[in-house]
Amino acid sequence: MVGSKGTIMIECELTYDLLPNVDTKAYLEWAKKTNGLMAKQPGLVEFRANRNVLASPQIRTVSTWTSLEDWAKFNQGTWQPIQTELRGFAANMRVELWGPSPILAEPVRPAK
After folding, report:
1. In this structure, are residues 18 and 89 in contact, taking their beta carbons and an 8 Å threshold?
2. How many domains does the chain divide into?
3. What is the CA radius of gyration of the chain?
4. Residue 2 half-sphere exposure, CB side, CA atoms within 13 Å?
């Protein structure tokens, strides 16, 4: 994925399951706080969340960054306390970083 200024964007995919008997109210408060923090991160292009309608992992978030450096700054700073708190609600956490394909750098969309 290439940004509007020709920069290569990075996607960070985080998946996890909620712990059994999770305190739903506390988790929702954490999620709201995290969404607010994400919106303020330098280099963040987009942050979205999905739920798996079939099985595990139950939750996936995807954050898109203008560069690997922007993601690294977030990962080494703001993310640390967020991740620590998330571990109180989640299991099976997995993080993957994705960059553009050298073969298909832009999405293919049907003609209109």
Report:
1. yes
2. 1
3. 15
4. 8
In the beta sheet, which residues pair with residue 64?
11, 46
Tens digits of residue pLDDT in 27-66: 999 999 999 999 999 999 999 999 999 999 999 999 999 9
Residue 37 · residue 43 · CB < 8 Å: no
CB 16 within 8 A of CB 34: no
Please indicate, yes or no, if residue 3 is contained in any of the structural domains.
Answer: no
Position 67: which residue type? S
What is the rounded end-to-end Cα distance, in angstroms, of the chain?
A: 22
Residue 42 in tokens: 């330098």
Where do we find the tokens 């990962």?
75
